[in-house]
Amino acid sequence: MQITKAVIPAAGLGTRLRPVTDVLPKELLPVVTKPSLYLVLEEALKSGLKEIILVVSPAKKSFFEHLKEVFPKLAFQFVIQKEPKGLGHAVLMADQAVGPNPFMILLPDIIIDHPKPVCLQLIKVFQKINRSVNATERVPRDQVSLYGVYEMASREGRLHKAKRVVEKPPPEKALSDFVVTGRYLFTPDIFEVLKKTPPGRNGEIQLADAMNTLAGRGELYAYEFEGLHMDIGNPVGLIRANIYFGKKEYGKSIYQGLV
Ligand code: G1P
């Protein structure tokens, strides 16, 4: 089956990047000369995705209208999330727009660079196993509390079967150092699960809690992707992304006089 639709939740307030995010959505902050969201959309395009469902707040919608012209090969649909009630809630807003087929979720503050786009890596796995499969990687123990964290049941090479998922546990309670990394491929039953998922951490509907339900049923897989991940949702990650892509484009001369 071909995967053509992707949900991009972009209604967040970008509080960690204030004050710039008071005037510009974080998805449009530059990585060298490109709004960071363009890098995510390029990944979607290279992975064969065709329809993008952007979940936006009423205040941010107008900032994204120009995408239709910049990416004419992608069809855009906007879904309004009036209140930020969590990632799971944002995804649930896209239920009707997604419809009955498997789809992807791309978190726009996660940029992953690799010649074979991570979305495509997940699609290839899905075509073999026909089950929900999300990107994972190992991170240092002291960083696990920034992420959804897996407990794995079994593995075969890079592909793991998940047993449990917990959203942002304290390091001492983390079940492993395998984390949820911002690219997800779900079968549409995730919507039924999300509808029954009560508010969790921070009183928000957490996608990780719905993933935990799927994992408990033995229906969730995680794939150790190839690529370097940068989180532009915080100041250091945004700077790292600019250094990484700046060096790629202009070479080491960007360091002159700095280090
Ligand atoms: C979200 C998810 C979390 C995931 C992370 C990185 O958290 O809730 O499970 O590990 O993205 O992909 P956020 O960073 O938006 O707080």
List keywords for this structure.
single chain; nine-stranded mixed β-sheet; 259 residues; alpha/beta; 10 helices; binds 1-O-phosphono-alpha-D-glucopyranose
Write the layout of secondary structure elements.
Elements: E1 5-9, H1 20-23, E2 30-31, E3 34-35, H2 36-46, E4 51-56, H3 61-64, H4 67-70, E5 75-80, H5 87-93, H6 95-98, E6 103-106, E7 110-113, H7 118-129, E8 132-138, E9 148-156, E10 159-167, E11 178-186, H8 189-195, H9 207-216, E12 220-224, E13 228-231, H10 235-250
Parallel strand pairs: 1-4, 1-6, 4-5, 8-12
Antiparallel strand pairs: 2-3, 6-11, 7-13, 8-11, 9-10, 10-12
Helix pairs in contact: 5-9
The chain binds 1-O-phosphono-alpha-D-glucopyranose.
The site of 1-O-phosphono-alpha-D-glucopyranose (G1P) has 13 residues, from β11 and α9.
Full CATH superfamily name:
Spore Coat Polysaccharide Biosynthesis Protein SpsA, Chain A
* Proportion of residues in extended strands: 25-35%
- Quickly count the domains: 1
Task: Tell me the strand order in the biggest sheet.
Answer: 5-4-1-6-11-8-12-10-9
Quickly name the level 1 CATH class.
Answer: Alpha Beta
SS-derived structural category: alpha/beta
Beta-strand segment tally? 13
Shape: globular
Radius of gyration: 18 Å
Order of helices and strands: EHEEHEHHEHHEEHEEEEHHEEH
Q: Write the CATH architecture name.
A: Alpha-Beta Complex
The biggest beta sheet is recorded as:
9 strands, mixed
CATH fold annotation: Spore Coat Polysaccharide Biosynthesis Protein SpsA, Chain A
Number of helices: 10
Cα separation of the termini:
50 Å
Residues in helices, as a percent range: 25-40%
| Poorly predicted runs of 5 or more residues | none
